[in-house]
Write a structure and sequence with these properties.
Layout (H helix, E strand, L loop, with lengths): L21 H6 L3 H10 L12 H14 L1 H25 L9 H6 L1 H42 L5 H8 L3 H29 L3 H25 L3 H7 L4 H13 L2 H27 L18 H38 L1 H12 L2
Helix pairs in contact: 2-14, 3-4, 3-13, 4-6, 4-13, 6-7, 6-8, 6-10, 6-13, 8-9, 8-10, 8-11, 10-11, 12-13
Length: about 350
């Protein structure tokens, strides 16, 4: 199956599943068919109505329980690829830092330059691969959530078949949104560096520039936070996906921001808890920050990679699932998507 379920189309696109024709569409089905459709929706992981906070946070867990193979298999594959890259970076690019202390980095310009160069290159490579693999996982979770909402069966092959035609557009959405947010932050920092040399006034302007850049980055991230589900389920272009996301977020920005921040706190906490057992075996990501020498051994690097892979496998689907359900919730609240989906189920019931 390469097409999304009926009912996910954007309003006004002329398809039978769009919300634009919801009233007349529902009217064409008899009461028994609609009642059957309503009964069928109880098989979904969330009710077909606007979702509360608890349902938004519990929904991703229910999705993983109902569809463990497609979600966890892809999450594990993404986590392993990312962890292997980080392991290679640690054992190669960061290997010269072994035995280097934090004090020597501040006292020696050459050591500091070497550190910056290795860290920048390693971070850049890891970030690039992480964005690409994370985008694929996010898109796959969106597909699975779209099935889970209706209680439809799916597997990894079917989900991948639906996602594959949208991959380039989905990567374009991720790159565009990421560059815009990152550019806002970097622009603010650059202005702060320029202004900081102008005395007290310059320092004040520098602080304001950083704040403006940071706020701009958060606003852009929030504005386009639902672009991935739009791109996958509505099959929109990169530009249209970003525009649609802005429209969906506009009248519920504070609520979405709060939920995304809460999700970030939950995933950060759970991720650290999952890493704690590895501390017993000598893995310490903060080694060397207290002024002592940095010790990077192969064993510690492997432990770090395993800890990161395990944490990402279990945490990343939750974060992506919350975002997908936020998209579903916003369309239910703003466009009556729940009515459209019930109508689509009624049509399937005859």
């Amino acid at each position: 199956m390469t097409e999304p379920s009926i009912g996910w189309n954007a309003p006004g696109d002329g398809s039978s599943g769009s919300v634009a024709g919801t009233t007349s569409t529902v009217g064409r089905y008899d009461t028994a068919a609609v009642a059957t459709a309503v009964a069928l929706q109880t098989h979904g992981v969330v009710p077909l109505r606007p979702l509360g906070l608890g349902e938004l946070l519990d929904g991703p867990v229910a999705v993983v329980r109902a569809y463990p193979r497609p979600v966890l298999a892809m999450a594990a594959a993404v986590a392993v690829v990312t962890a292997l890259l980080q392991l290679v970076v640690t054992l190669t690019l960061l290997a010269p830092l072994t035995g280097t202390s934090a004090a020597s980095l501040t006292s020696s310009s050459s050591a500091f330059d070497n550190y910056l160069g290795a860290a920048a290159l390693g971070t850049g490579l890891a970030l690039l691969v992480s964005v690409m693999t994370g985008t694929v996982l996010s898109g796959l979770v969106v597909v699975v959530v779209s099935k889970a909402v209706l209680g439809e069966a799916t597997d990894l092959r079917g989900s991948w078949a639906q996602l594959r035609p949208r991959l380039l557009s989905l990567l374009g959405v991720a790159v565009a949104a990421g560059l815009a947010s990152f550019g806002s932050l970097v622009g603010g920092i650059a202005l702060a560096v320029v202004a900081s040399g102008a005395g007290v006034v310059g320092v004040v302007l520098a602080v304001l520039a950083v704040l403006v850049g940071a706020v701009g980055a958060v606003l852009l991230y929030l504005r386009w936070s639902l672009a991935a589900p739009v791109c996958v389920l509505e099959r929109q272009s990169v530009r249209r996906s970003l525009t649609r996301s802005s429209g969906l977020v506009r009248h519920s920005a504070w609520r979405i921001l709060g939920i995304l921040l809460l999700t970030l706190l939950i995933t950060a906490f759970v991720g650290q808890v999952l890493r704690l057992p590895f501390l017993l075996f000598g893995y310490n990501p903060f080694r060397g920050l207290g002024g002592g020498p940095v010790r990077i051994t192969a064993g510690q690097a492997v432990l770090g990679a395993v800890a990161g892979a395990l944490s990402s496998t279990l945490v990343a689907p939750f974060s992506a699932g919350v975002r997908a359900l936020l998209y579903v919730d916003r369309r239910m609240r703003a466009e009556g998507l729940d009515v459209s989906l019930v109508a689509a189920q009624a049509q399937a019931c005859g």
